[in-house]
Amino acid sequence: MIEHEVLDTGLDDGEDDDFDLEEVYDSELPEGRYLDRELSWLAFNQRVLELAEDPSLPVLERANFLAIFGSNLDEFFMVRVAGLRRRIMTGLAIPTNVGRAPQDVLADISAEAHRLQLRHADVWTNQVKPALAEAGIDFLTWADVTEPERADLYRYFQEQVFPVLTPLAVDPAHPFPYISGLSLNLAIRIRNARTGRQEFARLKVPPMLPRFVRVEDESNRIRYLPLEDLIANNLDDLFPGMEILDHHTFRLTRNEDVEVEEDETENLIQALEAELLRRRFGPPIRLEITEDIDDITLNLLIDEMSITEQQVYRLPGPLDLRGLFDLGRIDRPELRYPPHVPVTTLGFQPADPHGHADLFAAIRKGDVLVHHPYEPFATSVQAFLEQAAKDPHVLAIKQTLYRTSGDSPIVQALIDAAEAGKQVLALVEVKARFDEANNISWARKLEKAGVHVVYGLVGLKTHAKLALVVREEEGALVSYAHIGTGNYNPKTSRIYEDFGLFTIDAQVGRDLIRLFNELSGYAIEKKFKRLLVAPRHLRKGLTRLIDTERRNALAGLPSRIRIKVNSMVDEQIIDALYRASQAGVTVEIWVRGICSLKPGVPGMSENITVRSILGRYLEHSRIFSFANNGDVQVYIGSADMMHRNLDRRIEALVRVTADTHITRLEGLFTLAMSDTVSSWHLQPDGEWVRHSTTDSGKPFIDLQDRTMQNIMRRRRARVVRR
């Protein structure tokens, strides 16, 4: 680790670094101009839930969206709610852009989260579960199971479940047990038949076993019984000689955020490993219980885990619908989205159908823009690094890695390159939330293979998606670069929508060489040409571009701003967009998740439109487009409009210069903002209204389906021209 001073932001192309956006503004913006970020996040998860409610979607996809909703909400509590509670307990200020008291923030979150969890349970019970039954997939209770089936299930219980169960008693000799975060548990009240004394026991539902147990019969139906139901109806085997009085399911969420004081430790890896051990014992944040729980058991849980009534979520069972992810194993393709078959971008297709493409030769002909998952990661990014690892003319590979996996072909390519004698640098971000342990593990694997592994800069996360390959060609060194919007992860690339730019442009090569030198050494670089880099350049670079559009609008020149991000939270960026709108600039925001900007407010944001699109793929790319008086400037990269991305991370945007690529990105944006595309429209009060069908009930265009069709159409047209 190297010490790093976060310098003032500023562009690095020779322009005035003293640019101050506030100095050019005459009017004040009104108070109350931001939407609450936490409630906006919950509104995003509500949009996920609305997909589960949509009867026009294939039923297994609806079940998957229920699982995604649950997983999302778990992380929200583990990180965001936990962070708010920690700040309240320690007396720290809560960062809020709406000026509310900390307790009011938590109360509003709790009320909305309660409402959404009840809605989530209702969607399962009254919509998705019956729809699955209509498709021949049943979810049973113990009462639904026949005696012969119970005998079969009992054999399964004895052979596969009973040996791994560990009942834990609570009595003077046995203190209340530790309850791990996100575990599913049974709270059991029993009576000693000999003494008449009532006791309490906790039983953890084994997470390594299938969440839903298959119930076999002679029909063609697929039938499941929740594992906790099977266990609960065989408790006599666990407590022989005891009378089972009652049992209820509960689930605890803990604070699992990681806090490491980087400037106070000599070894980040050791400090992070110690913090990961402490994470398991974070304070309780949420207690989910079944609605039929008795007061004695509930009061015991509340007292022993020191939680408040506000943190208790009473729900109809079953708890923890993340188990619905397991339905992905069901071989019923007609109950899923029709398949999209990714198509390798034409420039990377081999001349010989049985051979391998020469990606370096393709990039030398001109920049290549790839769009995942419509165009495969395996035949672009992965193939690029694998070719670099094998090519004897490649001298060095430098890459940032934020989230990947130890068995990833990306990691293997870097290992192969190092073992072949190439200089290989991997900047591994070990602080990537919930991937910390994995990243430490495979980073050490890289080190053992001879890769130079760097763990980033003190106080900053490295979130940029960058790869640089230095190759000797005809006695000169040539830099091949990839700048992306998504992680170097082959698995997530199949469901995350992202862009990546391959280029041999000398300016980009020099920019990346300088940036990697800063990340691995002691350089403090301020000169970049085609990149905007956080934390020193990106904020001021974007505000300057936004203000240029404002000035152009005031001068009667063509102006327009288009931004696609996961989150729009940063107040300075939002204020700059408000002022651009006041000047008459058309502003189009395409956001997947959080948005604190209020669109359509007269006198402030009436020229701003905000849309959100959710579907089979997770919209993940970041695009920034500025009309620039007819000379359109477009950037892609890794940064969202959040404080952490602009001020506390290494982020990078690259300017897209090829006319065909600009046209492609602009066309995608035009389609996404069209009133004929299925999307959610943000209202000034923070409500998201879904527009998915015409007044006559005809479905709107699915953006992701149409994007796949457009890629296929372009491919066919190019093949014909050949």
**Tell me about the biggest sheet?**
10 strands, mixed
Unreliable spans are 1-16, 260-266
Distance between the termini: 52 Å
Mean pLDDT: 88
Number of helices: 17
Radius of gyration: 28 Å
Q: What global shape is seen?
A: globular
Strand content: 15-25%
* CATH architectural grouping of the largest domain: 2-Layer Sandwich
CATH superfamily of the largest domain: Polyphosphate kinase middle domain
The overall number of domains is 3
* Beta strands, count: 27
> In the CATH scheme, what's the topology name of the largest domain?
polyphosphate kinase like
The chain-level structural class is alpha/beta
CATH class call of the largest domain: Alpha Beta
Q: Which bin fits the share of residues in helices? A: 25-40%
GO molecular function: kinase activity
Domain Polyphosphate kinase middle: 150-327
Function: Catalyzes the reversible transfer of the terminal phosphate of ATP to form a long-chain polyphosphate (polyP).
Keywords: ATP-binding, Kinase, Magnesium, Metal-binding, Nucleotide-binding, Phosphoprotein, Transferase
